[in-house]
Amino acid sequence: MSILETISSDNDVFRAYAFWTAVTVIKMLLMSGLTGKNRFKNKTFANPEDTGFAGKNLKAKFGDEDVERVRRAHRNDLENCIPYMIIGLLYVLTNPTSFIAVNVIRIGAISRIVHTVAYLNALQPWRAIGFFGCVAATVFMSVQVLMAFY
Question: Between the CA of residue 22 and those of 118, 120, 123, what are the distances in Å?
């Protein structure tokens, strides 16, 4: 299969990759909005120039638990979703078996959603299950890429 056929909407694996990557990106973008929502709700702004939006003369402050929990979950996304998405594209280029590839890609993205929901609601062991589900998918795809391109 040529690269143009591989990265086409006719390829089930590429379609799954494109769909679940878009879902993952949207989820990550929503985390920024949730951080802002919590900052306004709790009047906790990181920069002095941002305090004027709250309609009061507030001082910048840090350490609000609601804001920090969202920020930690978002940082965890940045540390894990980006490698998952990059290796996922490389994995698509290996022309993997459709059934396995679609499900590995799906497991990685759904695991990140589970992780985020569990993180925001302090739910263990679901947070760990979500974390390790995506790590397992990323490692699996990484090994497949290494084997295909070595």
Answer: 21, 21, 25
CATH number reported for the structural domain that contains residue 81 in this entry: 1.20.120.550
Neighbours of 19 (CB within 10 A): 14
Per-residue pLDDT of the chain (150 residues; tens, 9 = 90+): 777 778 878 899 999 999 999 999 999 999 999 998 998 888 888 877 777 766 666 767 778 888 899 999 999 999 999 999 999 999 999 999 999 999 999 999 999 999 999 999 999 999 999 999 999 999 999 999 999 999
What's the structural domain count of the chain?
Answer: 1
HSE-CB for 28 with a 13 A CA cutoff = 18
Domain carrying residue 98 = 3-149
Task: Tell me, letter by letter, the H, E, C secondary structure of the chain.
Answer: CCHHHHCCCCCHHHHHHHHHHHHHHHHHHHHHHHHHHHHHHHCCCCCHHHHHHHCCCCCCCCCCHHHHHHHHHHHHHHHHHHHHHHHHHHHHCCCCCHHHHHHHHHHHHHHHHHHHHHHHCCCCCHHHHHHHHHHHHHHHHHHHHHHHHC
